[in-house]
Amino acid sequence: MKYFSRLHVTALLLQCVLGGIAAGVIGFLILRKFGTVGDGAEWWGFAAFYLGGGLVLAARVWMSGIDVRRLFGPVPPRPVFRLTIVAVPMMALAIAGFWLLFLPLAYVAPGFVRQWGLASANMRPVVTLSGWSAQFLVAVVMAPVVEEVLFRGIILQRWAEKWGTRNAVIASSALFALGHVELLGHFVFGVVMCALYIRTKSLWVPIATHALNNGIVTVSTLASVLQPTHVEEQLTLESLKAQWWMGPLLLLIGAALLEWYRRRYWSDVNLRALLTGQLPYAAAEASEAPEAPAAA
Q1: Which pTM does this prediction carry?
Q2: Is 146:207 a contact under the CB 8 Å cutoff?
Q3: Exposure letters 60-96 (e unless 16+ CB within 10 A, then b)
Q4: Distance between the two ends of the chain, CA-based, in angstroms?
C-alpha cells in the first residue's frame, strides 16, 4: 500500500481539475473554430473536462506504481452484477435528498436555492441526437469510470492508510457528495459504492452501478430529442414549496427499496465489519505476496 502514500489527495484533485479545465478550453476552441458550438456544447465541454481529468488521473496512477489490475480487481461473474440494481433506490433517495435539502433553504436563502439548486435542476435539455450522445457519453461512460477510480479506487484507499477504513469511507463519500449539487443522497450513494467495492473486490461493480444510475436519468431525457417541441416544466421556488411532499414520499420509497435490496442481497453480510475491514488492493497484494520459506 506504499504506492497510495505517493498520491496526496489535495494535489491530485487540483491536478485533475486543472487538466480537465485545460482540455475543456481546448475542446471549446476547437468546436468554435469549426462552427459547431450549439446544442449540447456544454456536454461536449463536460466530455473534454472528464477526458483531461481522466488522463491526468491515469498518468498519476501510473507514476505512483499502482498496479491497475489490482486496483480494478477481477471482472466478477454475471450474477454479481445483480448488485447494481441498488441504483434504483439510490436514485429515489437522491431526488428525495434534493427536496429535503433545498426546501428548508427556500424559506431562508431563496437566492442560493435559485442559483445553486434550481439552476442545476432546470439545466437546458438537449434537443439533438448529437447533444444527447455527448450527454450519454459523459453520464454513462466517462463520469462513472473517472469518478469511481478517483473516489473509490484512489481516495478511499489513500485515506484508509491514514485513518482506517470506516473513516475513509465517510470522508471519501462526503468529498464525493461535495462535488454534486445534491449532498444527502450522494453521500449515501458514495457509502454504497464503497460497500460494493469492498464486498466484491472489483471496481467494475460500482462503475456499472454508477453507470446504471446515470443511464436511467439520461434515457429519460430522450423525450426532448424525440419530441423537440416538448417543453419541460421548470422547477421554481413556488413549485418546490408546493410539492413539499415529494421529499418525504421519495424518502420512504427509496428507504423501502433499499431495505428490500438489503434483505435480498446483503442479509448474510455484516456491513459494519465490511466497512471497517481490509480494502481490495491490500487484500490482493497480501494474497499475491510470496510465502516465506519454511524454517529448516
Answers
A1: 0.92
A2: no
A3: bbeebebeeebbbbeeeeeebbebbebbbbbbbbbbb
A4: 31
